[in-house]
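Today's session is about reading a structure prediction critically. Students often jump straight to the picture, but the first step is always the sequence itself: look for stretches that repeat, for charged clusters, for runs of hydrophobic residues. Only then move on to the predicted structure, which in these notes is written as discrete structure tokens rather than atom positions. Here is the chain we will use throughout the hour.
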Amino acid sequence: MDASQIRRLEPLLAEHLDRFADCFARRDTRAHLPVYVRGQLSSLERKSVEPIALAAGVPVRTLQEFLTHLEWDADRMRQRVAQIVVQEHAHPESIGIIDETGWVKKGERTPGVQRQYCGAVGKQENSIITVHLGYAAGDFHCLLDGDLYLPDSWHQDRARCHAAGIPDDVVYRSKSDIALELYDRARRHGVHFEWLTFDEWYGGKPAFLRGLEQRQQKFVAEVHKGVVAWIDRPPVTNRPFRRGKRGPLRKTPRLRADSPPAQTLEQLAQSHPQLRKQRWKTWRIKDGQKGPIVWQVKHAQVFVKDEHGLPTRPWHLLVARNPQTGEIKYFLSNAPPDTPVSTLLRVAFSRWRVERCFEDHKGEVGLDHWEGRKWIGLKRHLILTTVSYLFLARACWGLRGEKSGVDGVPGAHGGERRRGVLVP
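Below is the predicted structure for this chain, in token form.
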């Protein structure tokens, strides 16, 4: 970035923040928005309220009240972020990415804090967890939305919730339920996702996958090797039956008595002829800093066992093996049967983009620097951080232009970076 590009950023930032002007009823309240956002985009080592206020020459208490007491519409600000993405970054191959992040917090008064697994440190730690929805389209990516995971221990202690300003309608929700709420909210705001992808934890929640199926949303989900399915569809009968010698006849669909048992994905990969005899195909997934990232892949259509023990419609199964480490990943997708494997791989290995968003949110704009004790302050901090990062992402995207492409799946002729290539 040269000096002229840096000078252009200031009017671009002012224009960016003007798009959120109607989120504030009072001009003096709105005046705090550029102070907070500029602080997050600055080179401050710590980007919590106090350092930002001191650097800007405003009273610390005033900026604290901006987060927790002054009236402004954070929900409208969230909606405006989605509108900007829809208007200027819509893409026919857009990918939504579900993931969570956490950061260590001391004490007991921070909303949602408890001892739980924190991915930032890779172990059980006193921390808070937030669930997020990312958006990737072409060379652009950002976070659209995020929400606090409120543990059940907090939900059961409403006095503790009231002390932290947590409303009574904010209750315990599983992380997968929060993810569906984030998805539904983005869709209401007009965001279209051609695909959705997420890690094994979310892929291991059958109710979450069923929810996406009901919403007719295509996804590629990393799943656990223990998920059970059939490659050969088992016969199902609607023939009436009764339990025991008495009772009414039942007409519930069920597997026929001669149906083979479902097997785990690992068992299918090791023993079913369609996968066992299939040769591994080598795909260059993307170009990393140390060279091409390569995975070997097998593909089949499978019928996953649903909540009633019956086979679903055909889903794609990808068995991916890292030839250097021997690591094996399993992916399931509800995409149409004729969907190319290259497309499924591009989506399956797109999660690095939300991980990059988390890295930038924490390292560049201070997502994990929040030090408050009120729920409304955390909610507003999450939204303001999204606004700050959206400017950063759009500025980088605009300056980059057509000079470089996303590290997607390279093309068959080396230059088409968004399609698959089979490496000899």
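Discussion point for the tutorial: Confidence is low (pLDDT under 50) at residues 402-424.
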